[in-house]
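USER: I would love a firmer grasp of how sequence relates to backbone shape in proteins. This is the protein in question:
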Amino acid sequence: MLGEAKAIETLKKIISMVEVEQAEAIMLGGTSALTRFANSTIHQNVFEKDNVVYLRVAKGRKIGVASSNILDEEALKHLAGRAVEIAESQVPNPNFESFVHSPPAEKVETFDEATEKCSAEKRAKNVEALIREADKLNFLAAGSHSTTAREVAFVNSLGTQQYHKYTSVFMNTVVMSPTSSGYADQSCLDIADLDPERVGEEATKVCADSQEPRELPEGRYDVVLSPYALDELMTWLCYIGFGADPFQEGRSFMSGRLGEAIMGENVSMWDDGLDPRGLPLPFDFQGVPKQRVDLIKKGVAEGVVYDSLTARKDGKESTGHALPPGEEISSMPLNTFVATGEASQEEMIESLDRGLFVRRFHYVNGFLEPRRAVFTGMTRDGTFLVEGGKIKYPVKNLRFTHSMLDAFSNVEMISKEAKLQVSSWMGASVVPALKIKGFNFSGKTDF
């Protein structure tokens, strides 16, 4: 990584090359290392080191964006000229008045040197420890293990300067038998906190317990959703509903409903880029310090997140949630939390008279009916019928089609434990397990 001084110096240099009214530059840099394995054998190890600079310039109300990962003098001059050319070809943006002058964001310590320096040999030993757990039952394991060290720097012509660096660790696996599979993962910021044996043990147990699944008819079932399943739902809620773009365009389940109860009063959701329990990022990609935003508060639609342009459109201040230039939406929660409850996941399962324990969802689609947050998707890697508070047997995967507003209006229990789930794209969520009444499963599978 370049470090704060060098990163800020580079961005200032780019800004000085731009001959327009205003400019801002963002640097995303660092290293990423990944070890993949399949059939209980490591088959790929990659290491990437890169620094990408995004330059955004304003010529009147016309905005141009260009990017480069070549940072020598000639390349930077070309970048500056290209951004201006792009701006000149744009139509004026009526919501733009100025870039933002912001104070320094609060510092959050999220960097671990040992994680940055984690070797391929260390990752291989972690993978070996995971695979040993699957080997105990002659199962096969596949998955990945990554370590990342990133820095984000921001400078604009109005005097805003921001810098943050962080590390993260991720390990996941699918353990397979001829008739079943089990999934587990762990996210953390420090390599010392990773427990590969636990990841392997968890996935292996689920795989063993879910062998020879039985068919179950579609219909409505009370369910216990693990944090893995809830994380998938939260990603889609953030994408289709909690950002300013869908809200302002009237296609969000939040549109026209602020102040109304749209979920159960035991449900609260918020975004907080400074909370150390997540993956903190103290400012956004327009240099604005992040604010905590209550999205759902005791079931009531409380607010959405803004960047500077969408905020100006609503006569508000940016909440510090601008995404990097070039994304198809302007703002989105990246550091989400769901309020915990008082039960354990085991107690929630024990409270089911007849229902399903769902470990994981995949192929989720949240575009069916965004105004009601109707999602569809599939169960995966361990779904179990529960009767009389006890897991009876594994069931074949089911398709669900259900309104998340209805689902989160029928939450009966929430776990007291919450799990950190780092996104494969950006950000993270911290989510508990939920017990939900009457979750609709609309189809079944043969596997």
The first strand starts at residue 22 and ends at 38. DSSP finds ten helices and 21 strands in the chain. The radius of gyration is 23 Å. The chain has a mean pLDDT of 97.
